[in-house]
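Working notes for the structural subgroup meeting. M.R. asked for a predicted model of this chain before we commit to crystallization trials. I am recording the input and output together here so anyone reviewing the notebook later can reproduce the run.

Input as submitted:
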Amino acid sequence: MVKVVATCSSNSRPRFTKHDALALCLALLIPATVIILILVSVFPSLGGPPLPDFSDPIKGFEPRGTKLSNKMVAIKKFYDFPRVWSYQPPQSQTGGQQNNVLSSLKRKRRSSQNTLERPLSSDLHVRMMFVFEASGGNENLFVAGKLKDACAIENSILSASSLYVQDCLGISDGMTYQCYSSFSLGNYIALLNNRTKCQDITDQDVSYVKNLLLRCHPYFVKQTLKENCASSSCEGVPANCTKYNAVYNIFQYLTDNEMSPSNDMFLKYTSSIPPVSGEDLSEEDLYDELFGQLKDSVPGREGIKLASFYFMGYKFDLFRIKLLTEVIYPALAMIFVFLIMWFFLGSFILTFTGLFCIIYAIGLSYCLYTMVFKIDFFPFLNVTTLVFLVGIGADDAFVYYDIWRQTCAANPHANIMQVTLKTLLYAALSMLVTSLTTASAFFAGVSSSITAIRLFGLFAGTSIFTNYLLMITYFPAVVALHEKFASSQQNSGMWLELFWGIKPEDNGNHLNPDDYGTLQLDESFDKSSLFSSAGQKFLRSLCESIEDQPFFAAFPFFDMCPIEVSIKTCTSPGTACCGVNASFPFPADTAEDCLRLASFLRNTGVLFDQQGKMVGFHFLIISDQSFTTSFTAMDDFWKSVTSWFDKEMAKAPTGLDKGWVGCRNLDLYALQMGLSEGTYSSLGISVAVSFGVMLLTTLNIFISIYAIITIIGIISITIGCLVLAGWQLNILESIVVSVAAGLSIDFTMHYGVAYRLAPDKSQRDTRVRYSLKHIGSAITMAALTTFLTGLMMMQASVLVYFQLGQFLMLVMVFSWLFSTFGFLSICSVIGPKDDFGQLNCCSSCKNEPEEETGNLAIPDLDKSPHDQNNKGCMDRKEKVVEKIFEEFGAQC
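Returned structure, recorded in token form:
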């Protein structure tokens, strides 16, 4: 009986034979069936987590654990846990005195009448907006004809919607329901001229309103003309400027900011705000209906057209839909990678297996992410891991199969097991180095304070490792199986809040954006410090100091500091609990009793728990800084606030020196600050880890230094190109900068390892040629596939996919150029020769007489197996492995 031993096949043409089909059944269908059965039956019974939910795309994009974010979380919990505190003590402690005072504070609400056929709503809420512009570049919209056309266009849009009447604000006579008129320039002109509707206005009406705006413009600029001047007194403002709040709303909401007396009130853009309630469940359906009506055609008339429209919150719904529908672009990238891998690997089954490893690695990482790490939140950024993994997985597949073919060529008579072990000896180390550096770059994101970035780094790094495990276990097995069969036949002013008695702590799970923990009361807060003479004086001086600050605008409620309100309440004739002629500061007991009595006003600032115990102090300040996305403006504002407050706390008496200031509108600023601080640390960690891994892998100081110099050059020119392309620091940009080190080292690492393992170590140019010949083709194909992955994503309208594709293209081009022409050039000129700069892996590695190594050759295209006499630990290991191969082959 003759034993048949499968050997390497020299046929490398693309093939898909019946043996491929059999291998496909064994290697893919059986594992896929097992996975499906686990997902359908076993996984749900074990309490498996639900599928990721991307209904809130911005969830998780917030810093956690920083000093500023702790304050913001404490404020959020302060409002989310009202049972922990109260502005009022229990009813029994204040008696019936509240009712008398409350009744004296009641005010009658004013009602407004107007002459419009469909009146305007009393409240203006911007939930929907249409913006109109002139068709010609120099045409003025402030004429009767164009304004009437704008009204007509809007009416045609809204009348075509069957859902608008269900969600609009309006009036009912018991029989019919009529929507209010939209807040538009045409309707306000009709209202101010006693017309019944927008279509009735004339050029004289428009001229009257234009002259009115000219007269009232100085008051708006000086901010003496404010919102709701029609229902409250605005000193020094003429009555016709406050009528119906028309002038304020026109300047604030309905005209562009370039319209002014200096350009004769030239109007380029005007907006219209329909009265949408936003409380009906059909609002999203209304937006869908209107968006479907407007996205394909732009309504307009002669001289005017619809320039844009705004639906509140609708962009997040569109983003959620686009995120899923535009998965087609990463899918197209995978198809192109599949075709290139098929061309390079020469086998459909091996190509399919390589992509299956990537998909399987994602699923396995998700299982670890949810079941082992116990993380419930899955941000949409984690989906982009698939894009990174396609390039990395293809790189590993190319490297393994390239070394496999070279090993087969060098050892034509070796059996499958011997070739597999020999290939893994080289490929596993090379893939481990690239996986470690790339995963470390992702894991460096865990140091960020932004929840979504931390979770992305954790998930992406885990995916890299799971993919590596599959590439050294599952993929080699399929390659061996495939070769065995083939060989036998083949992506308005902000409010500042001052607290005492509340801890600025975030005790929730920083990896779960839904878990903010509980509100923590400061047990060290002593109410005696608050009511002491020193405490009363300090708080009053604090109010005086606030009013002198450049960022101060006003106090809310009665436009008075809470301390001044308390003093006025305590000494007023109606509630003279401290005495009409009492002097400040008041006795501590008297001040406490008086504040308890006045607590129903809600602006005394004293906080009570459910037992009526005073647990803290809190009051609000309205700043003159409006919310903006500009980091510089917000940073200057917040630094001036904290600098002022820290100076005041240094003068505070004991017991009041632990106060802190916060603001609820600093989410974006905190995010930007977290990004600016975390990006550089992540980049530094990535580069440091890359150097460490390179040094541990090659054990050569100079190769590691040259590699890091190359990587720094790649990162620098890549980031420079991204800056020239208009990139600004944000979530994705932060990830890209930190990941750049991991992706930049791959090709340089492969060349460095090959340079280190070259047989002839005495000649630099020989070692460089060895590196380029053995690994150059695989690196070129890996760079090409990843470049095409990015190229396919350049057509996406989702910014994440577009920028990711742009980054992948740049980093692949510069990585290939710098590693091939830069790193190898450095090595050819000043690269280490022999063992210069080499660190010994163990002290027992010495030069010993060479032994016979048999016929199994190292995969070298230049020298035969008998010509390779290497020194060092690697030579010792290779000889031992070769002996094992000989004995194993003899037994087979």
